């Protein structure tokens, strides 16, 4: 059973329950009102009969159909007197002997004036509502009965009408429930179709039915955003695989060439052997570095690091010391006391990549690191960055024309960009006045801690 059927049945059930409850309460209220009116009428009439006004017992003519009872009176009455010793005599009305119980005789013998009790009595096919009223101690009682068949006929008609109305309400509730369920589930059905298409592998040409401010509309909007991110992620993944395949082809081709040369290793001169081994060692090192960069970029391992308080100045000092040991280059750090909530290892990796990039492109001259207000700059005196390259320097595997022969994976600055974006920041690359380049990143203002203050951390 689908959701639409369940909702329709639920609406119909609620409507039926409401109709039944209203019908039952209406019938009970009507029955109680009629019975109360009968009892009040009996009490009033019994007082008149006790006073000798027996004409009130005369029946009223009524027109009946062929299927009705043989009587031609509307709710005829019957009255009899009960003496103190318990005997009865007819007073008027129908020639029917009303049943007398021990309680009735006791009421006739010793009841105070006006004491009364009600009972139900059946004589043949007729039902009566009977009242016994005491006339005073030792004076007997008056017993008055009224035929309630007409009242029961009215109640049966009322019950039939209530049943009919309840059936109509049930049908109307079922129809309304089906229409409402159809309206409610229409967008859910379309959204289900979209999810089935996505599960079959389609992402790009799937239209999500968005719209509305209710829960279904919010779900569709969220699903549309999620689908867009999935499509972008798959596109990035395919582009990464294609770029990686292209970048891996060069070192693998070189290694394959060197491997074929190694077959004639004994024929080579000592100088050629040394150059060949150095070339193989360099290519394997570059290949290992490229694979490591690919794995880190694809898996985003730095995103698993728990964020905490970080001082950018200390991060820059540690990164500069590491690159200084590796390259034996002069690197200076000038930083304020900017602190933020971030991932220390990831930020240190970003600064290290910027410094290694500067070392590679600026083989001479000092390298400077400047940290101010959540902005990290690495300055060098290399050949600089052209306008065309400045817009693409952080793309994966991008290499400027002058860097084709330089070592590197082409992924270092792409990782810097991802780390900066993960910290609500951005990246930049621009020429440096007097020659060289300024490359760096910023962190989001919302990430900076309120206790950050100007100062210097030099290294």
Automatic annotation (TrEMBL):
<dbReference type="Pfam" id="PF00672">
    <property type="entry name" value="HAMP"/>
</dbReference>
<feature type="domain" description="Histidine kinase">
    <location>
        <begin position="243"/>
        <end position="447"/>
    </location>
</feature>
<keyword id="KW-1133">Transmembrane helix</keyword>
<dbReference type="GO" id="GO:0005886">
    <property type="term" value="C:plasma membrane"/>
</dbReference>
<dbReference type="InterPro" id="IPR036097">
    <property type="entry name" value="HisK_dim/P_sf"/>
</dbReference>
<dbReference type="InterPro" id="IPR003660">
    <property type="entry name" value="HAMP_dom"/>
</dbReference>
<dbReference type="InterPro" id="IPR036890">
    <property type="entry name" value="HATPase_C_sf"/>
</dbReference>
<keyword id="KW-0808">Transferase</keyword>
<feature type="transmembrane region" description="Helical">
    <location>
        <begin position="158"/>
        <end position="181"/>
    </location>
</feature>
<keyword id="KW-0472">Membrane</keyword>
<keyword id="KW-0597">Phosphoprotein</keyword>
<feature type="region of interest" description="Disordered">
    <location>
        <begin position="54"/>
        <end position="73"/>
    </location>
</feature>
<keyword id="KW-0812">Transmembrane</keyword>
<dbReference type="Pfam" id="PF00512">
    <property type="entry name" value="HisKA"/>
</dbReference>
<dbReference type="InterPro" id="IPR050428">
    <property type="entry name" value="TCS_sensor_his_kinase"/>
</dbReference>
<protein>
    <recommendedName>
        <fullName>histidine kinase</fullName>
        <ecNumber>2.7.13.3</ecNumber>
    </recommendedName>
</protein>
<feature type="domain" description="HAMP">
    <location>
        <begin position="182"/>
        <end position="235"/>
    </location>
</feature>
<keyword id="KW-0902">Two-component regulatory system</keyword>
<dbReference type="GO" id="GO:0000155">
    <property type="term" value="F:phosphorelay sensor kinase activity"/>
</dbReference>
<dbReference type="InterPro" id="IPR003594">
    <property type="entry name" value="HATPase_dom"/>
</dbReference>
<keyword id="KW-0418">Kinase</keyword>
<dbReference type="InterPro" id="IPR003661">
    <property type="entry name" value="HisK_dim/P_dom"/>
</dbReference>
<dbReference type="InterPro" id="IPR004358">
    <property type="entry name" value="Sig_transdc_His_kin-like_C"/>
</dbReference>
<dbReference type="Pfam" id="PF02518">
    <property type="entry name" value="HATPase_c"/>
</dbReference>
<dbReference type="InterPro" id="IPR005467">
    <property type="entry name" value="His_kinase_dom"/>
</dbReference>
